Each structure stands twice: as structure tokens, then as C-alpha cells.
Amino acid sequence: MEKEKLKKIVLFTGYACSNRCRFCIDADKRGLPERGTGELLREIYSAKAAGADILEIIGGESTMRRDFRVLVRTAKKIGIEEVICATNGRIFADREYVRQVMEAGLDSIIFSLHGAVAEVHDFLTDSPGSFNELLHGVENFRSAGFRRIYGNTTVVRQNYRQLPEIAEMYARWRFTNVEFIFVDPTYGGAYNNFEELVPHISEAAPFMRMALDTGTAAGLTQWKVRYVPLCHFTDHLDHISEINERRLYISEHWAQDFHNDDSIGSRAEVSRRKAAKCTGCSLAGVCEGIWKVYLDHYGEEELRPVPAADLPAFLPGAVENPEKKRSDNDLMKSGSILNKNTETMGHTGE
Ligand code: SF4
């Protein structure tokens, strides 16, 4: 019998990175020691024993570890169905390394692209040359015939106007899964430099919606936005990562400094908040609100409670009236939000 939800375990290898992204949630953790190979191999065996369907290996930048291929190969050898890595892409400018990682058995890769041009991407990564290396990395995977290449973009003040151009790049590369992630200012770089980096959602949202529309127009219908208040996306509710992942996954985060057995639920409870204004909003049942730190800085003025009459009929759990709900099973059958075969990507940079 098919499992109700897939179990995804996100394994943090440490926080060392070849980039210095200004908004990085782990900006204040880079000095922590990297985890050892033996420790990580034990974690991979534990992940398998815990029933992981998906293992996502992330850092920092896990791909620059000398043992990265050993970690991937081991996870595949013991039967983990999908091994994913999220990367800044720089090391994959080396075509031979791409070949070796593919040979180790990596199933999927997520490139983090933060600008449509080098000037913006390299500024945000604080790493000259990182844009060109990422582009070479993408091309090396594509030309090697690797199919499951995905993308994510952290949305900040410096790049939100470029989102349509970034979306054009993803569409040209035919990336089936892409996420546009509203920056997380709970701690790290965006917390430390909030005013410089965090845009107002009302200014960024129109560009995020345009980016989604670029994907849809190209036939790439699985693109998503993450960490947004739903009232700014009422016409794109089938493109919300959190709605998607709550139905698809049980997600655990395993790092050296924390262990989270319910990363999806705890994010909603610990880091995000609905405002007084949200009382009575018909989307309150499915919306996680916005970052607490965001509300502390910018207040709740931009939130726009949604009348029930404006809701699409398919959205479950949004309203109190049960007649407006359809079961998750109905949704699974109709595929209106979910597609287990194509939707195994999810942001994990928290
Ligand atoms: S609950 Fe609040 S943040 Fe969410 S959609 Fe409604 S008004 Fe917006």
C-alpha cells in the first residue's frame, strides 16, 4: 500500500560554504566545526532505519566536502529512494566532478540562483565569479543528460524586480520544480541586516506572481512560492509550497546543533505568525501568516483578510464551513495541488 506521506530527512553536513550569502540563515553558524564522515555515515544509516524515502544533503555547501560522493553513494547503496542535494553550484563548473557525483548516484539537484545577472547574484552571495560558475554547473549537468535539475531563489530587496528574468532562465533550462522563497529573517544574515535585505511583501509579491506565470506559460506548472502570506497569492493558491508539503511530507531536520522531528509544523508555530488583522480571514486555516520578525519591523498593514466568497472551491481547510472543504484524498485523486511523482523538492534552508 502506498504511504500517506513521504518521509524526508534533511541532513546538514555543517555550515562551511564557498559563498557568503548576505541573507543566509546560517550566517552566524559558519564557524561551527564540520561534521565528520563517520558521524554522517551513521546518520545516513539512521535515516534509512527511520524510514526515510528522501534524503536531502545540505550545508553550508555539502558538495565541497571531500566525502560528498561517499555520502551519496552510501545513501543509495542502502536503498534510500531519492538522494537530493541543494547547492550554490560553484563546484560543478568542473565537468569531471559532475560526472563523479552522477556516478555516485545523486538523484536530484537544486541550484540556488539569486540574480539574473552576475552583478546581482555575486553581490548577494558576496562571492565574485559565483554566478558564472553556477551557470557552468547547470550546463554541465544538462549536457550530461541529468534530468532532475531544480532551482530556488531567495527573494530579497536587491533581486525581487529581477524575478521575471530569473524565471525566464529557469524556463529556458526547463526546470520542472522551482521555488521563489521569501527571505527568512528569523536569524542569520537577514535578521542582522533586516532593513537592507527584506523587501515589503506587497512590493515583492507582484514580481513573485509574474515569475510563477512565466513557468505556467512555459508549461512548467509545478513552480512554487514559499514563506508568503496567502492573501497576496489568492490567484496562485495551487503554487504554495507549504500547502503542498503539508500533504506530501513528514520532514525532519538533522543538524549538529539541532534536531527537529517536525520542521514543517514547528516553523508555523515558532517563526511565523498571523496578525490581529487575520481574524476572520477565510484563508487563516491554511495560511502560516508571515515571519514574526517581519511583523515586528513592518507591522501588519500589508495583510489583506480574504472573504470566503473569494476562495477557490478546491482549497481544503481554509474555512470553517465544512461544506466548502474537500478531503485531501479527493485532492490527491484529482491532482489539483499534488503530484507525488514530480513534487519531491522542498526548501530546507532553515
Ligand atoms: S491569514 Fe492573514 S496573512 Fe494569511 S491570508 Fe489571511 S490576512 Fe493574509
Q: How is the secondary structure organized here?
A:
Layout: E1 6-12, H1 37-49, E2 54-58, H2 68-77, E3 82-87, H3 95-104, E4 108-112, H4 118-125, H5 130-143, E5 149-155, H6 163-173, E6 178-182, H7 189-192, H8 194-197, H9 201-217, E7 224-226, H10 241-248, E8 249-254, E9 259-260, H11 263-271, E10 272-273, E11 290-291, H12 292-298, H13 328-334
Parallel strand pairs: 1-2, 1-8, 2-3, 3-4, 4-5, 5-6, 6-7
Antiparallel strand pairs: 8-9, 10-11
Head-to-tail CA distance between termini: 32 Å
Gross geometry: globular
Helix content: 25-40%
Bound molecules: iron/sulfur cluster
Compact overview of the structure:
The protein is built from 13 helices and eleven strands. With 350 residues, it is α/β, with parallel strands linked by helices. It has a single domain (6-334), classed as TIM Barrel (Alpha-Beta Barrel).
Model description:
With 350 residues, the chain is α/β, with parallel strands linked by helices. The chain has one domain: Aldolase class I (TIM Barrel), CATH 3.20.20. 35% of the residues lie in helices and 14% in strands. The chain has 13 helices and 11 strands. Strands 7-6-5-4-3-2-1-8-9 form a 9-stranded mixed sheet, with helices on both faces. Strands 10-11 form a two-stranded antiparallel sheet. α2 links the parallel β2 (54-58) and β3. α2 runs parallel beside α3. The longest helix is centred in the middle third of the chain and has 17 residues, at 201-217. The protein is globular. The protein starts with 5 loop residues before the first strand and ends in a 16-residue tail after the last helix. Residues 229-231, 274, 277-278, 281, 283-284, 287, 289-290, 303-306 line the site of iron/sulfur cluster.
